[in-house]
Design a protein that fits this description.
Strand content: 15-25%
Strand order of the largest sheet: 2-1-3-4-5-10-11-12
Distance between the termini: 104 Å
Helix content: 25-40%
Number of helices: 14
Number of strands: 17
Amino acid sequence: MTHSDLYEMTAVAAVIGIYDWKTVVAVYIDDDYGRNGISALSDVLGNVGAKIAYKAALPPGASKNEIGSVMVQLALLESRIFVVHMNPDAGLNLFSEALYLGMLSNGYVWIATDWLSSALDTTTLDYDTMNSLQGVISLRRHIPLSDQEHAFTVRWNNLYKSGSVDARLNAFGLYAYDAVWAIAHSIDTFLSEGGNVSFTDYPQLSSASGRKTELAKLKVFGGGPQLQKILLQTNFTGLTGPVNFDKNGDLLGSTFEIINIVGTGYRKLGYWTNQSGLSVIPPAIRGSSSHATHSGQKLYDVIWPGENKLVPRGWALPDNGKHLLIGVPRKVGFQEFVRIEGNKMMEGFCIDVFVAAVNLLPYAFPYTFVTFGDGHLNPDYDGLVQQVASKKFDAAVGDITIVTNRSKIVDFTQPYIEAGLAVVAPLQTRSSSGTWAFLQPFTLQMWCTTGAFFLVIGVVVWILEHKTNPDFRGHPKKQALTVLWYMKFECFLW
């Protein structure tokens, strides 16, 4: 009697989602238990924008050497988020190898399913084992507090102290107890409804040669379908809370505690339920006004491997990763955009923009700058773009203008610098000072044309005003001075 793997893996995906990690590595035991769980995890990770980047399957009963070989391969991967879904024996050996390889240091994240919390509840782990679990996050099945559960736990602990049982009680023990009671209730209902207890042979268990085997002695319960129907309709409150099933035979309602292994024990980070997701508030009191201040908080702060309190980014540059070649123009002018010191030191505004953009990526982006040009003359930018188009460079960074012929063969980013419109004019080297400097804007021909234009206007005005205006009459010298005076006034007016 248990919950569907989908519930537990949805809780794991919720933890991954709140930290916005994009890729994880799944480490699991290669049997039905492990494969079904990881398959469910793969299905639900898409809901939080993540995916499984690598799957590492360990054979059942894997030795330490086999585990160590797998861990060496995992240490070379880019993703630093590991989800471990296996049995306690193999899982504890895996964490021991991880500690040996330095994979429980800053930057790593380890999430274990409820097998780890069950091992912690059942046995007392030694110092070395606990040391290999520091900073690990695990899921633990939440058992609501009740008088019935408390009384049963006290009785079991007394048996453990007296040596009558060799292990402490964990959540699976409580589920097993409720499973026995569910079967007992179903059999009682079956008999009270007049069910007949009968058994028949199962001939398919005989060998193909016709000879009988020991398996052939097994019998089939004739009232199985009726008993199964009654069992699926079970509804009572057990040690683990309400016991009822869906049509697939899985328990309804699932709650997990999110715990963080620290020191010799663990601390609770929060709770996950299939109704309301993650919260630091226990399911029994959610919605209470006394806990309204924590209603938006998903989990308490985690102490990550390496005693780090900063949330790991979830990836690192792999040791065997291929670096992308980024072409950079080795130029003479405008070194504020790109400046190359020596052969490797790249500086400038374009380089700063590129590095800042890379640092914002949620995944690894290994790259190497490669210079283009000899540094004595400005390089051919069309040639640099052609190198990207021909795959010699994976990309290029610099003050590369976006023009039509270049955009036809490569893709450009959005422009982050705009020169705008400008007027190009020749540089005037002659002196602009002196008494007659005001004559420099026009040529001699232009000045003569302008003077003739003013003279013609003056003569036309004299012709029009001569007969009616006494100021334009008299001695010819006076009339000439009047025309010149009018021309001077017109020049200032113009």
